[in-house]
Amino acid sequence: MKFRQKSKLIVMALLSVLTVLTSCQQKEQKQEKVQLGMTTTIPEGIAIPDKVETRMGTLNFRDGFPDKATVEKLYDNLDFQRAVQSYLLALPAVSMMGLREGLTKLGPANFTIPTFETMMDSRSLFLTANANTAYTWIWINLHDGPLVAEIPPMTLGMIDDFWFRYVTDIGIVGPDKGKGGKYLLLPPGYKGEVPNGYMVINVPTFESILVWRNFPVNGDIAPAIENLKKLTKIYPLNQAKNPAANTFVNVSGKDFSTIAPADYTFWYYLNTVVQNEPVESMDPVTLGFFASIGIEKGKPFAPDERMKKILTEAAFVGDATARTLTYQSRIPEAFYYPNSTWRQWLGGYKFESQPGVRYLDASAFFYFYATGVTPAMEAKMVGQGSQYAVGIVDSKGNPLDGGKNYRLHVLPNVPAKDFWSVILYDNQTRSMLQTDQKFPMVTSQNKNLVKNQDGSVDVYFGPKTPAGKENNWIQTVPGKGWNTLFRLYGPLEPWFAKTWKLSEIEEI
After folding, report:
1. Which segments of 105-141 does DSSP mark as H helices, in order?
2. How far is CA 334 from CA 293, 338, 344, in A?
3. Do 403 and 302 sit in the same domain of this protein?
Protein backbone atom coordinates (compact mmCIF):
# COMPACT_ATOMS: atom_id res chain seq x y z
CA MET A 1 0.00 0.00 0.00
CA LYS A 2 2.83 2.35 1.01
CA PHE A 3 4.62 1.42 -2.21
CA ARG A 4 1.62 2.43 -4.30
CA GLN A 5 1.32 5.77 -2.54
CA LYS A 6 5.03 6.47 -3.08
CA SER A 7 4.70 5.52 -6.75
CA LYS A 8 1.78 7.86 -7.15
CA LEU A 9 3.71 10.71 -5.58
CA ILE A 10 6.66 10.06 -7.82
CA VAL A 11 4.45 10.08 -10.96
CA MET A 12 2.84 13.35 -9.91
CA ALA A 13 6.22 14.91 -9.27
CA LEU A 14 7.46 13.77 -12.66
CA LEU A 15 4.36 15.21 -14.35
CA SER A 16 4.90 18.50 -12.55
CA VAL A 17 8.51 18.65 -13.68
CA LEU A 18 7.45 17.76 -17.22
CA THR A 19 4.88 20.57 -17.19
CA VAL A 20 7.47 23.06 -16.03
CA LEU A 21 9.93 21.88 -18.68
CA THR A 22 7.27 22.11 -21.39
CA SER A 23 6.31 25.60 -20.27
CA CYS A 24 9.95 26.65 -20.27
CA GLN A 25 10.41 25.14 -23.71
CA GLN A 26 7.37 27.06 -25.02
CA LYS A 27 8.71 30.24 -23.49
CA GLU A 28 12.06 29.59 -25.07
CA GLN A 29 10.34 29.01 -28.42
CA LYS A 30 8.44 32.27 -28.03
CA GLN A 31 11.65 33.91 -26.98
CA GLU A 32 13.27 32.46 -30.06
CA LYS A 33 10.43 34.01 -32.13
CA VAL A 34 11.16 37.41 -30.70
CA GLN A 35 14.84 36.95 -31.23
CA LEU A 36 14.60 36.12 -34.95
CA GLY A 37 17.12 37.91 -37.07
CA MET A 38 14.77 40.51 -38.64
CA THR A 39 12.47 40.95 -35.61
CA THR A 40 11.88 44.44 -34.20
CA THR A 41 9.89 45.59 -31.17
CA ILE A 42 6.25 46.37 -32.03
CA PRO A 43 5.22 49.74 -30.53
CA GLU A 44 2.23 49.84 -28.18
CA GLY A 45 -1.17 50.25 -29.84
CA ILE A 46 -0.46 48.44 -33.11
CA ALA A 47 -1.41 44.87 -32.22
CA ILE A 48 -5.03 44.07 -31.40
CA PRO A 49 -5.81 41.89 -28.35
CA ASP A 50 -7.31 38.44 -28.85
CA LYS A 51 -10.57 39.72 -27.31
CA VAL A 52 -12.02 43.22 -27.59
CA GLU A 53 -15.16 44.28 -25.71
CA THR A 54 -17.28 46.78 -27.73
CA ARG A 55 -20.88 48.04 -28.03
CA MET A 56 -21.28 45.22 -30.60
CA GLY A 57 -20.24 42.63 -28.01
CA THR A 58 -17.01 40.63 -27.88
CA LEU A 59 -14.77 40.65 -30.94
CA ASN A 60 -12.37 37.71 -31.20
CA PHE A 61 -9.03 37.60 -33.03
CA ARG A 62 -6.32 34.98 -33.43
CA ASP A 63 -3.05 36.84 -33.63
CA GLY A 64 -4.87 39.78 -35.27
CA PHE A 65 -7.11 37.74 -37.59
CA PRO A 66 -10.90 38.06 -36.92
CA ASP A 67 -12.98 34.93 -36.46
CA LYS A 68 -16.14 34.32 -38.50
CA ALA A 69 -18.59 35.74 -35.93
CA THR A 70 -16.46 38.88 -35.60
CA VAL A 71 -16.37 39.36 -39.37
CA GLU A 72 -20.19 39.20 -39.52
CA LYS A 73 -20.60 41.66 -36.65
CA LEU A 74 -18.17 44.14 -38.14
CA TYR A 75 -19.66 44.06 -41.62
CA ASP A 76 -23.18 44.48 -40.23
CA ASN A 77 -21.93 47.42 -38.19
CA LEU A 78 -20.09 48.97 -41.14
CA ASP A 79 -23.11 48.66 -43.41
CA PHE A 80 -25.34 50.16 -40.71
CA GLN A 81 -22.96 53.07 -40.07
CA ARG A 82 -22.69 53.84 -43.76
CA ALA A 83 -26.45 53.59 -44.17
CA VAL A 84 -27.13 56.10 -41.36
CA GLN A 85 -24.54 58.51 -42.74
CA SER A 86 -25.97 58.01 -46.24
CA TYR A 87 -29.40 58.89 -44.86
CA LEU A 88 -28.16 62.20 -43.44
CA LEU A 89 -26.19 63.00 -46.61
CA ALA A 90 -29.22 62.15 -48.76
CA LEU A 91 -31.71 64.40 -46.93
CA PRO A 92 -31.36 67.22 -49.52
CA ALA A 93 -31.91 64.97 -52.55
CA VAL A 94 -34.76 63.03 -50.97
CA SER A 95 -36.43 66.28 -49.90
CA MET A 96 -36.25 67.37 -53.54
CA MET A 97 -37.84 64.07 -54.55
CA GLY A 98 -40.70 64.90 -52.18
CA LEU A 99 -41.20 68.20 -54.01
CA ARG A 100 -41.01 66.42 -57.36
CA GLU A 101 -43.62 63.85 -56.36
CA GLY A 102 -46.04 66.45 -55.04
CA LEU A 103 -45.66 68.99 -57.84
CA THR A 104 -45.71 66.60 -60.80
CA LYS A 105 -48.99 65.13 -59.54
CA LEU A 106 -50.48 68.54 -60.34
CA GLY A 107 -49.29 68.26 -63.95
CA PRO A 108 -46.19 67.51 -66.05
CA ALA A 109 -42.85 69.19 -65.35
CA ASN A 110 -42.01 72.43 -67.22
CA PHE A 111 -45.53 73.02 -68.50
CA THR A 112 -47.28 73.21 -65.12
CA ILE A 113 -46.98 76.37 -63.02
CA PRO A 114 -48.36 75.80 -59.50
CA THR A 115 -48.91 78.95 -57.43
CA PHE A 116 -50.43 79.67 -54.04
CA GLU A 117 -52.53 82.49 -55.43
CA THR A 118 -54.24 83.30 -52.12
CA MET A 119 -51.36 82.16 -49.91
CA MET A 120 -50.69 78.68 -48.56
CA ASP A 121 -52.83 77.42 -45.70
CA SER A 122 -52.40 74.53 -43.29
CA ARG A 123 -54.08 71.94 -45.55
CA SER A 124 -50.93 71.59 -47.65
CA LEU A 125 -48.06 69.52 -46.26
CA PHE A 126 -45.00 71.60 -47.06
CA LEU A 127 -41.81 71.99 -45.04
CA THR A 128 -42.06 75.16 -42.90
CA ALA A 129 -44.21 76.81 -45.54
CA ASN A 130 -45.04 80.49 -45.53
CA ALA A 131 -48.55 81.92 -45.23
CA ASN A 132 -47.37 85.50 -45.85
CA THR A 133 -46.40 85.47 -49.52
CA ALA A 134 -47.72 83.90 -52.73
CA TYR A 135 -45.16 81.34 -53.93
CA THR A 136 -44.76 79.81 -57.37
CA TRP A 137 -43.07 76.35 -57.51
CA ILE A 138 -42.12 74.87 -60.90
CA TRP A 139 -40.47 71.48 -61.40
CA ILE A 140 -37.87 71.68 -64.17
CA ASN A 141 -36.82 68.75 -66.38
CA LEU A 142 -33.95 69.24 -68.86
CA HIS A 143 -33.64 65.65 -70.10
CA ASP A 144 -34.98 66.70 -73.49
CA GLY A 145 -32.70 69.73 -73.85
CA PRO A 146 -32.48 73.45 -72.98
CA LEU A 147 -35.49 75.21 -71.54
CA VAL A 148 -36.52 78.86 -71.61
CA ALA A 149 -38.08 80.37 -68.48
CA GLU A 150 -39.66 83.79 -68.94
CA ILE A 151 -39.98 85.36 -65.49
CA PRO A 152 -42.28 88.30 -64.62
CA PRO A 153 -40.84 91.43 -62.93
CA MET A 154 -40.69 91.95 -59.15
CA THR A 155 -40.10 88.41 -57.99
CA LEU A 156 -37.61 86.98 -55.50
CA GLY A 157 -36.51 83.40 -55.95
CA MET A 158 -33.89 80.87 -56.99
CA ILE A 159 -33.09 77.68 -58.86
CA ASP A 160 -31.81 74.73 -56.80
CA ASP A 161 -30.57 71.54 -58.46
CA PHE A 162 -31.73 67.96 -57.75
CA TRP A 163 -29.17 67.67 -54.93
CA PHE A 164 -30.81 70.78 -53.44
CA ARG A 165 -27.79 72.98 -54.09
CA TYR A 166 -27.97 76.61 -55.08
CA VAL A 167 -27.67 77.29 -58.83
CA THR A 168 -28.77 80.92 -59.26
CA ASP A 169 -31.01 83.62 -57.86
CA ILE A 170 -33.76 85.06 -59.97
CA GLY A 171 -35.72 88.28 -59.61
CA ILE A 172 -34.66 91.14 -57.35
CA VAL A 173 -31.28 89.64 -56.36
CA GLY A 174 -30.82 87.66 -59.59
CA PRO A 175 -29.40 88.59 -63.02
CA ASP A 176 -32.67 90.29 -64.05
CA LYS A 177 -32.52 92.62 -60.98
CA GLY A 178 -36.27 92.45 -60.57
CA LYS A 179 -37.04 93.48 -64.13
CA GLY A 180 -37.96 89.96 -65.23
CA GLY A 181 -36.78 88.47 -68.50
CA LYS A 182 -35.76 85.30 -70.31
CA TYR A 183 -33.58 82.71 -68.61
CA LEU A 184 -32.06 79.91 -70.70
CA LEU A 185 -31.51 76.77 -68.63
CA LEU A 186 -28.86 74.44 -70.09
CA PRO A 187 -28.66 70.76 -69.06
CA PRO A 188 -25.44 69.04 -67.91
CA GLY A 189 -22.90 68.54 -70.71
CA TYR A 190 -24.77 70.70 -73.22
CA LYS A 191 -22.58 71.36 -76.31
CA GLY A 192 -25.13 72.94 -78.65
CA GLU A 193 -25.53 76.48 -79.85
CA VAL A 194 -26.42 79.14 -77.28
CA PRO A 195 -28.44 81.97 -78.86
CA ASN A 196 -28.20 85.60 -77.75
CA GLY A 197 -30.85 87.45 -75.78
CA TYR A 198 -31.01 85.18 -72.75
CA MET A 199 -29.63 85.06 -69.24
CA VAL A 200 -27.82 81.72 -69.52
CA ILE A 201 -27.78 79.33 -66.56
CA ASN A 202 -25.86 76.04 -66.60
CA VAL A 203 -27.74 73.63 -64.34
CA PRO A 204 -25.56 70.78 -62.94
CA THR A 205 -28.49 68.31 -62.86
CA PHE A 206 -31.19 67.41 -65.36
CA GLU A 207 -33.97 68.10 -62.87
CA SER A 208 -34.30 71.07 -60.52
CA ILE A 209 -36.74 73.41 -58.79
CA LEU A 210 -37.57 76.95 -59.91
CA VAL A 211 -39.31 78.89 -57.14
CA TRP A 212 -40.13 82.53 -56.48
CA ARG A 213 -42.25 84.85 -54.38
CA ASN A 214 -44.90 87.04 -55.98
CA PHE A 215 -45.18 90.37 -54.16
CA PRO A 216 -48.46 92.17 -53.46
CA VAL A 217 -49.02 95.72 -54.71
CA ASN A 218 -50.27 97.99 -51.91
CA GLY A 219 -51.33 94.91 -50.01
CA ASP A 220 -53.18 93.38 -52.97
CA ILE A 221 -51.81 90.14 -54.46
CA ALA A 222 -54.16 90.22 -57.49
CA PRO A 223 -51.90 92.39 -59.73
CA ALA A 224 -48.94 90.05 -59.09
CA ILE A 225 -51.00 86.98 -60.01
CA GLU A 226 -52.26 88.75 -63.13
CA ASN A 227 -48.67 89.53 -64.16
CA LEU A 228 -47.66 85.96 -63.39
CA LYS A 229 -50.21 84.50 -65.78
CA LYS A 230 -49.61 87.09 -68.48
CA LEU A 231 -45.80 87.11 -68.45
CA THR A 232 -44.64 83.69 -67.21
CA LYS A 233 -43.76 81.18 -69.90
CA ILE A 234 -41.79 77.91 -69.69
CA TYR A 235 -40.97 76.12 -72.95
CA PRO A 236 -38.24 74.12 -74.74
CA LEU A 237 -35.70 76.25 -76.62
CA ASN A 238 -36.48 74.38 -79.85
CA GLN A 239 -40.10 75.58 -79.56
CA ALA A 240 -39.22 79.23 -78.93
CA LYS A 241 -40.99 80.42 -82.12
CA ASN A 242 -44.25 78.71 -81.23
CA PRO A 243 -44.29 77.65 -77.55
CA ALA A 244 -47.12 75.59 -76.14
CA ALA A 245 -49.31 77.22 -73.52
CA ASN A 246 -48.54 76.59 -69.86
CA THR A 247 -51.06 75.38 -67.31
CA PHE A 248 -51.45 77.58 -64.23
CA VAL A 249 -52.67 75.71 -61.15
CA ASN A 250 -53.91 77.51 -58.04
CA VAL A 251 -52.79 75.26 -55.18
CA SER A 252 -54.09 77.43 -52.33
CA GLY A 253 -56.27 75.30 -50.07
CA LYS A 254 -55.28 72.07 -51.82
CA ASP A 255 -54.75 68.94 -49.76
CA PHE A 256 -51.44 67.68 -51.14
CA SER A 257 -47.97 66.78 -49.86
CA THR A 258 -44.44 67.56 -50.97
CA ILE A 259 -42.77 65.90 -47.98
CA ALA A 260 -40.60 62.85 -48.57
CA PRO A 261 -41.07 59.66 -46.51
CA ALA A 262 -38.63 58.87 -43.69
CA ASP A 263 -39.03 55.07 -43.72
CA TYR A 264 -37.59 52.41 -46.06
CA THR A 265 -39.12 54.22 -49.06
CA PHE A 266 -36.48 56.90 -48.45
CA TRP A 267 -33.91 54.67 -50.20
CA TYR A 268 -36.04 54.31 -53.34
CA TYR A 269 -36.35 58.10 -53.51
CA LEU A 270 -32.56 58.40 -53.21
CA ASN A 271 -32.02 55.75 -55.87
CA THR A 272 -34.22 57.71 -58.29
CA VAL A 273 -32.01 60.78 -57.93
CA VAL A 274 -28.78 58.78 -58.30
CA GLN A 275 -30.03 57.02 -61.44
CA ASN A 276 -31.42 60.25 -62.88
CA GLU A 277 -28.35 62.45 -62.63
CA PRO A 278 -24.78 62.35 -63.99
CA VAL A 279 -22.06 61.03 -61.69
CA GLU A 280 -20.21 64.33 -62.18
CA SER A 281 -23.01 66.23 -60.44
CA MET A 282 -22.03 64.95 -56.98
CA ASP A 283 -18.73 64.41 -55.18
CA PRO A 284 -17.11 60.92 -55.17
CA VAL A 285 -17.21 60.45 -51.37
CA THR A 286 -20.96 61.04 -51.11
CA LEU A 287 -21.64 58.79 -54.10
CA GLY A 288 -19.27 56.26 -52.51
CA PHE A 289 -21.40 56.17 -49.37
CA PHE A 290 -24.50 55.56 -51.49
CA ALA A 291 -22.74 52.87 -53.54
CA SER A 292 -21.60 51.09 -50.36
CA ILE A 293 -25.24 50.42 -49.45
CA GLY A 294 -26.21 49.33 -52.98
CA ILE A 295 -27.31 52.60 -54.60
CA GLU A 296 -25.10 53.30 -57.61
CA LYS A 297 -25.60 54.89 -61.01
CA GLY A 298 -26.41 52.35 -63.72
CA LYS A 299 -26.93 49.43 -61.31
CA PRO A 300 -30.17 48.00 -59.93
CA PHE A 301 -31.00 48.68 -56.31
CA ALA A 302 -31.69 45.13 -55.10
CA PRO A 303 -30.68 44.63 -51.45
CA ASP A 304 -30.83 41.11 -49.99
CA GLU A 305 -32.79 40.35 -46.83
CA ARG A 306 -29.84 41.13 -44.55
CA MET A 307 -29.32 44.53 -46.18
CA LYS A 308 -33.05 45.31 -46.21
CA LYS A 309 -33.13 44.78 -42.46
CA ILE A 310 -30.12 47.07 -42.00
CA LEU A 311 -31.55 49.77 -44.29
CA THR A 312 -34.93 49.66 -42.55
CA GLU A 313 -33.33 50.22 -39.16
CA ALA A 314 -30.94 52.84 -40.56
CA ALA A 315 -33.87 54.84 -41.96
CA PHE A 316 -35.47 55.05 -38.52
CA VAL A 317 -32.17 55.88 -36.83
CA GLY A 318 -31.39 58.44 -39.55
CA ASP A 319 -34.76 60.12 -39.08
CA ALA A 320 -34.34 60.03 -35.30
CA THR A 321 -30.88 61.59 -35.67
CA ALA A 322 -32.14 64.36 -37.96
CA ARG A 323 -34.91 65.15 -35.46
CA THR A 324 -32.41 65.27 -32.60
CA LEU A 325 -30.08 67.57 -34.54
CA THR A 326 -33.07 69.81 -35.28
CA TYR A 327 -34.84 69.90 -31.94
CA GLN A 328 -31.90 69.58 -29.52
CA SER A 329 -28.79 71.18 -31.04
CA ARG A 330 -25.47 70.82 -29.19
CA ILE A 331 -23.74 73.56 -31.24
CA PRO A 332 -23.47 76.82 -29.21
CA GLU A 333 -23.26 78.89 -32.40
CA ALA A 334 -26.66 77.57 -33.47
CA PHE A 335 -28.40 80.06 -31.15
CA TYR A 336 -28.99 83.74 -31.89
CA TYR A 337 -28.01 85.17 -28.53
CA PRO A 338 -26.22 83.92 -25.37
CA ASN A 339 -28.62 81.94 -23.15
CA SER A 340 -31.29 82.09 -25.88
CA THR A 341 -33.36 79.22 -27.28
CA TRP A 342 -33.90 80.85 -30.70
CA ARG A 343 -32.10 78.96 -33.45
CA GLN A 344 -30.49 80.26 -36.63
CA TRP A 345 -29.13 78.73 -39.86
CA LEU A 346 -25.42 78.04 -39.57
CA GLY A 347 -22.76 78.33 -42.25
CA GLY A 348 -24.79 80.16 -44.89
CA TYR A 349 -26.14 78.54 -48.01
CA LYS A 350 -23.17 76.15 -48.17
CA PHE A 351 -23.45 75.23 -44.47
CA GLU A 352 -19.72 75.69 -43.93
CA SER A 353 -17.98 76.43 -40.63
CA GLN A 354 -15.08 77.74 -42.76
CA PRO A 355 -14.47 77.56 -46.51
CA GLY A 356 -14.27 73.93 -47.55
CA VAL A 357 -15.46 72.52 -44.20
CA ARG A 358 -19.13 71.56 -43.93
CA TYR A 359 -21.23 71.84 -40.80
CA LEU A 360 -22.75 68.37 -41.15
CA ASP A 361 -25.22 68.86 -38.29
CA ALA A 362 -26.33 72.28 -39.57
CA SER A 363 -26.86 70.88 -43.07
CA ALA A 364 -28.97 67.98 -41.77
CA PHE A 365 -31.02 70.38 -39.62
CA PHE A 366 -31.81 72.67 -42.54
CA TYR A 367 -32.74 69.98 -45.05
CA PHE A 368 -34.87 68.12 -42.51
CA TYR A 369 -36.71 71.31 -41.57
CA ALA A 370 -36.78 73.69 -44.55
CA THR A 371 -36.55 74.18 -48.32
CA GLY A 372 -34.97 76.71 -50.67
CA VAL A 373 -31.20 77.35 -50.68
CA THR A 374 -29.77 80.70 -51.73
CA PRO A 375 -27.00 83.11 -50.65
CA ALA A 376 -29.83 85.44 -49.63
CA MET A 377 -30.14 83.18 -46.56
CA GLU A 378 -26.92 84.66 -45.17
CA ALA A 379 -26.64 87.96 -47.02
CA LYS A 380 -27.05 91.09 -44.95
CA MET A 381 -29.65 92.90 -47.04
CA VAL A 382 -30.90 95.76 -44.88
CA GLY A 383 -34.49 96.52 -45.79
CA GLN A 384 -34.72 93.66 -48.30
CA GLY A 385 -35.55 89.96 -48.28
CA SER A 386 -36.30 88.19 -45.02
CA GLN A 387 -34.65 86.81 -41.90
CA TYR A 388 -35.69 83.92 -39.67
CA ALA A 389 -35.47 82.72 -36.07
CA VAL A 390 -36.53 79.17 -35.21
CA GLY A 391 -38.36 78.56 -31.93
CA ILE A 392 -38.14 74.91 -30.86
CA VAL A 393 -38.54 74.98 -27.04
CA ASP A 394 -39.81 77.29 -24.30
CA SER A 395 -37.64 79.58 -22.15
CA LYS A 396 -36.71 76.67 -19.86
CA GLY A 397 -35.70 74.41 -22.73
CA ASN A 398 -38.82 72.24 -22.56
CA PRO A 399 -40.67 71.02 -25.68
CA LEU A 400 -43.60 73.21 -26.70
CA ASP A 401 -46.75 71.35 -25.62
CA GLY A 402 -50.04 71.86 -27.46
CA GLY A 403 -51.98 71.35 -24.24
CA LYS A 404 -50.27 74.26 -22.44
CA ASN A 405 -50.47 78.04 -22.76
CA TYR A 406 -47.53 80.24 -23.75
CA ARG A 407 -46.77 83.87 -24.49
CA LEU A 408 -44.19 85.55 -26.72
CA HIS A 409 -43.63 89.19 -25.79
CA VAL A 410 -42.53 90.95 -28.98
CA LEU A 411 -40.68 94.11 -27.97
CA PRO A 412 -41.59 97.41 -29.64
CA ASN A 413 -39.82 98.74 -32.73
CA VAL A 414 -39.45 95.36 -34.43
CA PRO A 415 -36.62 95.87 -36.97
CA ALA A 416 -38.72 95.00 -40.02
CA LYS A 417 -39.39 97.56 -42.75
CA ASP A 418 -42.30 95.59 -44.18
CA PHE A 419 -43.81 93.28 -41.53
CA TRP A 420 -43.15 90.39 -39.15
CA SER A 421 -44.98 87.12 -38.55
CA VAL A 422 -45.11 84.09 -36.26
CA ILE A 423 -46.24 80.79 -37.83
CA LEU A 424 -46.64 77.46 -36.00
CA TYR A 425 -45.49 74.09 -37.37
CA ASP A 426 -46.16 70.47 -36.47
CA ASN A 427 -43.09 68.69 -35.00
CA GLN A 428 -43.91 65.56 -37.02
CA THR A 429 -44.47 67.00 -40.49
CA ARG A 430 -42.65 70.35 -40.11
CA SER A 431 -45.67 71.72 -41.98
CA MET A 432 -48.16 74.31 -40.75
CA LEU A 433 -49.95 73.13 -37.61
CA GLN A 434 -53.42 71.88 -38.53
CA THR A 435 -56.10 73.29 -36.20
CA ASP A 436 -59.40 75.15 -36.69
CA GLN A 437 -57.40 78.14 -37.94
CA LYS A 438 -56.79 78.32 -41.67
CA PHE A 439 -53.54 80.18 -41.09
CA PRO A 440 -51.82 79.26 -37.77
CA MET A 441 -50.23 82.69 -37.66
CA VAL A 442 -50.02 86.07 -35.97
CA THR A 443 -48.66 88.88 -38.14
CA SER A 444 -48.15 92.64 -37.96
CA GLN A 445 -50.04 92.73 -41.28
CA ASN A 446 -53.22 92.19 -39.25
CA LYS A 447 -54.73 95.65 -38.63
CA ASN A 448 -56.70 94.24 -35.68
CA LEU A 449 -53.57 93.09 -33.83
CA VAL A 450 -53.74 94.27 -30.21
CA LYS A 451 -50.72 96.30 -29.16
CA ASN A 452 -49.60 97.27 -25.68
CA GLN A 453 -49.20 100.93 -24.70
CA ASP A 454 -45.45 100.86 -25.40
CA GLY A 455 -45.99 99.41 -28.88
CA SER A 456 -45.01 95.86 -27.90
CA VAL A 457 -47.18 92.89 -28.85
CA ASP A 458 -48.02 89.77 -26.86
CA VAL A 459 -48.54 86.65 -28.98
CA TYR A 460 -50.43 83.82 -27.27
CA PHE A 461 -50.27 80.08 -27.96
CA GLY A 462 -52.68 77.55 -26.50
CA PRO A 463 -55.72 75.31 -27.07
CA LYS A 464 -58.25 78.01 -26.05
CA THR A 465 -58.63 81.64 -27.06
CA PRO A 466 -57.59 84.13 -24.35
CA ALA A 467 -60.40 86.66 -23.84
CA GLY A 468 -59.97 89.76 -25.96
CA LYS A 469 -56.80 88.43 -27.60
CA GLU A 470 -58.30 86.59 -30.59
CA ASN A 471 -56.12 88.43 -33.12
CA ASN A 472 -52.98 87.77 -31.03
CA TRP A 473 -53.64 84.05 -30.53
CA ILE A 474 -52.55 80.91 -32.40
CA GLN A 475 -54.41 77.71 -31.61
CA THR A 476 -52.55 74.57 -30.50
CA VAL A 477 -53.72 70.98 -30.03
CA PRO A 478 -53.41 69.02 -26.76
CA GLY A 479 -51.06 66.09 -27.24
CA LYS A 480 -49.47 67.68 -30.32
CA GLY A 481 -45.99 69.21 -30.19
CA TRP A 482 -45.19 72.33 -32.19
CA ASN A 483 -42.44 74.75 -33.15
CA THR A 484 -42.39 78.17 -34.75
CA LEU A 485 -40.61 80.50 -37.16
CA PHE A 486 -40.37 84.21 -36.41
CA ARG A 487 -39.96 85.99 -39.75
CA LEU A 488 -38.92 89.57 -40.47
CA TYR A 489 -39.57 91.01 -43.95
CA GLY A 490 -37.28 93.86 -44.89
CA PRO A 491 -35.02 93.28 -41.84
CA LEU A 492 -33.30 96.40 -40.48
CA GLU A 493 -29.88 97.01 -38.97
CA PRO A 494 -30.86 96.36 -35.29
CA TRP A 495 -31.69 92.77 -36.25
CA PHE A 496 -28.27 92.14 -37.77
CA ALA A 497 -26.48 94.04 -34.98
CA LYS A 498 -28.57 92.17 -32.39
CA THR A 499 -29.34 95.40 -30.56
CA TRP A 500 -32.99 94.38 -30.74
CA LYS A 501 -33.59 91.03 -29.09
CA LEU A 502 -36.37 88.53 -29.61
CA SER A 503 -37.88 87.49 -26.25
CA GLU A 504 -38.24 83.88 -25.16
CA ILE A 505 -41.46 81.86 -25.37
CA GLU A 506 -42.77 81.69 -21.77
CA GLU A 507 -45.23 79.17 -20.37
CA ILE A 508 -48.13 80.92 -18.59
Report:
1. none
2. 32, 10, 6
3. no
